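Help needed: design a sequence for this.
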């Protein structure tokens, strides 16, 4: 890395990133990095990040994979903690370089910062990460004040806002995940929300994806307190749900509806008519990319769980959509790998929708689902007999079968006696190596067993 030739340094930094990506996994007990060589490695990387932009970008990649190796490494991630302040400082300095434009260096620096924060040992580094929060918030605030004269200026502003919102999302998730540090996010939530809304206001027609993701993280972190932001935020959420052209924005907005449902529970009710109208329009659209449709069905489940019996008014609209989608699944070409993957996503999301609705109605309106139970059980059987289903579909199918038995109780006795396929299905799942699947299958077996002896 101290060679006079820039190409040599560039290639060396790239090689280091590949070594760290492939041969550095402390969680499994194997790594080329040890306590004895880490100091030297970090010293070289933090010095080389000051090099020419192309070299610095590759060094960012090396730091990225070095940090990523400590994901899920538990206490082993402690070895990186002493280097965190200097690493964060170096990445922030790199992102501010005036010669950074040509080599994606700004993006590399912020993406690496995200990974360093995400994989840090929170117990040891919470103070450092908390100190980073106002720095990034200030940088985001400055982007709103940028003078915009040309379309290039607008693009530069948007790119920088996306990167900074991405960093804030990671910090929100990191600090709110631990009880000891959650209060840090709650204290600045109002200021952050103001910033995110100002970012939205910079964009006249499109909703900022990264700001939307950060708001989803903030909703999850603040819980019921998020309700006070809804009136101001809802117009931007609706813009996202109606954005057919930029389907990733639409998909992210659907995911944020789920986050808000989990945060607000039935306090989301005043917005549900508009949200459900938008979601149903999305499903009916012939121009919206198909990849958005599975998250919408999952979102039906989130809404039903949040508002419980109040979902009754949407049932006549949601059920035909769900049943129609389940029939589409049966027609998917099994030789087309991409369509097969889509089919699995769609089936899983339909099961998640049914689960949410069944659980939402369990205590007061369970009888509303009786007319739909036969179709659901038949759909589960079709999926069981399809050996190309993936594990996530299997888990969702077994879970919804348990929800069906749990919510409808003795009303399902005859149906389960007639449809004995579930015995083989649960038997298969109980033999699985996946503990979570076995646990769900055992619970479902108990639910069905309970109604058969009733």
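Sure. Designed sequence:
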């Amino acid at each position: 890395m101290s060679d006079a030739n820039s190409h040599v340094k560039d290639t060396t930094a790239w090689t280091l990133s590949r070594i760290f990506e492939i041969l550095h996994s402390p969680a499994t007990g194997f790594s080329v990095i040890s306590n004895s060589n880490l100091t030297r490695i970090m010293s070289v990387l933090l010095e080389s990040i000051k090099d020419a932009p192309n070299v610095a970008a590759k060094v960012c990649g090396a730091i990225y994979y070095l940090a990523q190796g400590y994901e899920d490494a538990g206490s082993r991630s402690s070895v990186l903690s002493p280097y965190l302040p200097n690493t964060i400082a170096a990445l922030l300095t790199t992102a501010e370089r005036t010669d950074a434009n040509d080599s994606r260096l700004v993006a590399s620096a912020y993406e690496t910062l995200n990974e360093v924060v995400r994989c840090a040992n929170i117990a040891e580094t919470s103070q450092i990460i908390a100190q980073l929060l106002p720095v990034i918030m200030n940088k985001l605030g400055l982007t709103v004040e940028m003078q915009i004269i040309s379309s290039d200026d607008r693009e530069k502003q948007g790119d920088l806002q996306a990167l900074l919102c991405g960093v804030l999302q990671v910090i929100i998730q990191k600090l709110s995940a631990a009880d000891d540090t959650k209060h840090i996010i709650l204290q600045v939530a109002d200021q952050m929300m103001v910033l995110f809304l100002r970012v939205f206001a910079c964009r006249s027609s499109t909703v900022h994806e990264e700001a939307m993701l950060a708001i989803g993280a903030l909703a999850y972190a603040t819980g019921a307190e998020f309700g006070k932001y809804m009136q101001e935020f809802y117009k931007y959420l609706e813009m996202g749900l109606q954005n057919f052209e930029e389907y990733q924005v639409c998909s992210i907005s659907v995911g944020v509806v789920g986050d808000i449902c989990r945060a607000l529970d039935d306090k989301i009710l005043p917005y549900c008519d508009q949200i459900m109208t938008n979601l149903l329009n999305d499903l009916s659209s012939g121009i919206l990319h198909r990849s958005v449709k599975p998250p919408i069905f999952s979102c039906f489940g989130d809404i039903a769980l949040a508002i419980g019996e109040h979902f009754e008014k949407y049932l006549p609209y949601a059920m035909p959509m769900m049943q129609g989608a389940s029939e589409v699944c049966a027609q998917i070409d099994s030789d087309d790998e991409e369509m097969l993957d889509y089919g699995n996503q769609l089936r899983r999301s339909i099961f998640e929708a049914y689960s949410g609705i069944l659980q939402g109605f369990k205590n007061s309106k369970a009888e509303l689902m009786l007319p739909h139970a036969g179709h659901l059980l038949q759909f589960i059987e079709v999926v069981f007999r399809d050996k190309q289903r993936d594990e996530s579909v299997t888990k969702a199918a077994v879970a919804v079968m348990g929800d069906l038995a749990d919510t409808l109780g003795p009303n399902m006795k005859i149906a389960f006696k007639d449809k004995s396929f579930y015995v083989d299905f649960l038997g298969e799942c109980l033999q699985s190596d996946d503990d979570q699947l076995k646990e769900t299958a055992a619970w479902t077996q108990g639910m069905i067993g309970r109604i058969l002896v009733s």
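The first strand starts at residue 24 and ends at 25.
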